[in-house]
Amino acid sequence: MNLSVKIGNMTFKNPVLLASGCFSKHTLDFTDVSGLGGIITKSVTMKPREGNPPPRIFETPCGVINSIGLANPGIDEFLKDELPCILSSQTRVIASIAGADVDEYVELTRLINQTDVTGIEVNLSCPNVERGGVEFGKDPESVKRIVDSVRNNTSKIIICKLPPLFDNRKIVSAAEQTGADAISLINTIPALAVNFETGKFEIGGKSGGLSGPAIKPIALYCVYNAIKSTNLPVIGVGGIMNARDALEFLLIGAMMVEIGTGVLVDPDIGNKIVKGIEEYFCKEGIKDIAEFQRRSRF
Ligand code: RRO
Predict the structure, then answer these.
(1) Ligand 1 within 6 A of 66 CB?
(2) How many domains are contained in the chain?
(3) Domain for residue 144, yes or no?
């Protein structure tokens, strides 16, 4: 059975990726990721960032609100400590970058370009920062400027991570006009939780981004709209908790999927999803994933 998929000039052994921000080198003590398509590291910035005030995570009945605020050790520490460990995991590694301006995206790209990562995911959709973040991903001109600059500094594959816009035609075509190899969507959806007893917000930074099963139908909607308006491969993200969820995204034409919140629940979820896809294809007599992904069905 052939589950392999291609993004740019790179072949991935199957369509299952772990999403940025939901695992670290420590997660790899609990799961073997060598059977996955690949893993995407937490978005990194040039300088270390402490992140937003706690609490940064709040669980809702069907999802999680986070306001991490792009906490990360900065690129130097990332390259010295986190990345070597992650690169030894025998799967493809994609590095996620988040800048406050074009220059920061370029500097990050130049440094990451010298490593053995397969590609770069350009995060244009963080909901929890004051500068940049989701504002870039809502503005076609910013998307063009940033991704063109990244393209000029690497020949590795580039994935643009876009926000949850209901009408994403302009943003998707802006990404297509750059040298991006794929787009991934959606990032988390702006959300708020308040404690009725204390009258306080549940998240230190007040609002955050919602992920998990609650957002899957919205993610499917945004991914479907994106697929209709681009020839770039689309990577579906949002609320995938099992193989059936992943297959729904592939069925509407996604080339790959990313698993985020599911990893917080079960670090081994990626392997279970790959196995579930294999079992389903076996049962249905599907020999090649491309047969399943044929867009013409819709
Ligand atoms: O760090 C975060 O708060 C964060 C990021 Br960078 C992102 O892209 N999406 C998200 O939900 N949280």
Answers:
(1) yes
(2) 1
(3) yes
